[in-house]
Amino acid sequence: MAVGEDGPPVIMEDHFNSAIANMWVNQYLLLLGEFDLENYDNGPNSILIWIMFILATFMSQIIIFNMLIAIMSDTYAKISEKKE
Predict the structure, then answer these.
(1) Distance from C-alpha of 70 to C-alpha of 84, rounded to nearest angstrom
(2) How would you class 11 by CB atoms within 10 Å of its CB: exposed for 0-12, middle for 13-18, buried for 19 or more?
(3) Which of 63, 66, 37 is nearest to 52 (CA)?
(4) Quick one: which of 32, 33, 42 has its CA closest to 11?
(5) What is the pTM of this model?
(6) How far is CA 39 from CA 3, 47, 67, in A?
(7) Cα 18 to Cα 12: distance, rounded to the nearest angstrom
(8) Which end of the chain is more exposed for a tag (fewer CB within 10 A), N or C?
(9) Residue 42: which residues within 8 A CB-CB, separation 6 or more?
């Protein structure tokens, strides 16, 4: 994590000039498992940060699991169709 020039540590790193683009990139990196817990306890909103982190990782796992189910269902349907 980076340290802000004027004080507290920065939790979300800046990759682009746009806050929305940074949000999407950081969520994608979180989905891939790249995160640093070093500065999550520093700051006034540490409880909110932990709650958002847990929700984001939980939702990411559900989305990936749903994608796996969809792929397996599609493959099963194709094999069943060829068998008949």
Answers:
(1) 21
(2) buried
(3) 37
(4) 42
(5) 0.55
(6) 9, 12, 32
(7) 12
(8) C
(9) 8, 9
Half-sphere exposure of 50 toward its Cβ, with a 13 Å CA cutoff?
9
**DSSP E strands, the chain:** 2-3, 9-10
**Which tokens sit at 61?**
């796992």
**Residue pLDDT, tens place only, 4-36:** 456 666 656 677 788 888 778 877 777 777 777
Residue 2 has pLDDT above 80, yes or no: no
* Dihedral class, residue 54 (left if φ above 0, else alpha if ψ from -120 to 50, else beta): alpha
